[in-house]
Amino acid sequence: MDLLQTTVDLIRFRTETGNATEITKAAEYIKQKFNHTDVRVEIFQTTASPVIFLRNCDTLDFDVIVLGHIDVVPAADDMFEPIIKDGKMYGRGTLDMKSFAAVAMNSMEYVAQHNLPIKFGVILSTDEEKGSKSTESFMEAYPQINTKIVLDNDVGGDITKIVSKCKNPVFVKIIAHGKEAHGSTPWDGIDANELLLQTWQNIRKIYPYYAADLPQPVDKWFDTVHFAKIEGGQVSNIISNYAEALLDFRLTENSSVENLERNLQKCMVKGVEYKIVSSSTPVVMDENNQDILNYKRFAENIMGRQIEFEHIGGATDSRAFAVKGSTVIMHSGTGDGMHASGEYVEIESVKQIADIQIKFLEYLAKK
Prior knowledge:
Blueprint lengths: L2 H10 L7 H13 L7 E5 L6 E5 L5 E9 L13 E3 L2 E3 L3 H20 L6 E6 L7 H9 L4 E7 L8 E6 L1 E10 L14 H15 L17 E9 L9 E10 L5 H11 L4 E7 L4 E2 L5 H14 L4 E5 L6 H4 L4 E5 L3 E2 L7 E3 H20 L1
Helix pairs in contact: 1-3, 3-9, 5-6, 7-9
């Protein structure tokens, strides 16, 4: 498989989350790539969005699964025509994460062509950027699916780092109820916006505010929150009777949703309530895990340098397998500008991830 051409082809599909037409075209493209192989390809339809499921076996009990997604966040038209310059590929999805979806496809083709005695699968979701509801539906439809190892390339952005910890994303809605009145007589009403801001201030006493223009914490492994969305009021001269905010908490493995709820209860003022919209689980791997160390050894040999472990605040779909006891190896190529107009990936890092993945699969097949 031509790894770079496959990446370019995938990027040209405008698979912004929810764009069913382009997602369907991309899924069919992936399916056709394996038409002349023994690889089983299923485009699993869910009410949310499809999941592309590749495997070289009939079983649902795997040795290794590569997990990823092909949907992207919105971008200008020109970002769906990738540009290669100075060893980098620019475009939407170059880093997050179509180049590594191509790596997964490349690994599957290699396993099939060389008849490696390993039970290998690839799962590519199509709505990861908006919560991975398709992955949840897929896992519910196949509750018996399991794997010893998950290779997760949807993390970080630095090939010199293997991620050993990811935080738990918990989304919370804060809802404030007030009483309408004319804006000139605020004593006749109860301002829901004001109630929301008072609650916000209480939350900030527990979870401080951080920004690029403020002093940076040395150790960043702690619970954080940012206010993702705030709405309140309809017209300028009416006291708002309703306001709400969506909060994005990131919890370490040392915290819990129960503890978060206890803190939230302390922060609520009269007329304000909260609702847990979604929560998950942190992915925490033992850095002395033998499979991870073996993978790390292959990566260091191919790259010719030492690799370190790191912790990140982002979430990963591999948590669906981590809770089942799978070893999750979180390692991505190098790039920058994820979700931004200048998104790029270093091409050499994509090739290296592909080589590392194949060497590791060959090693596992010989065990």
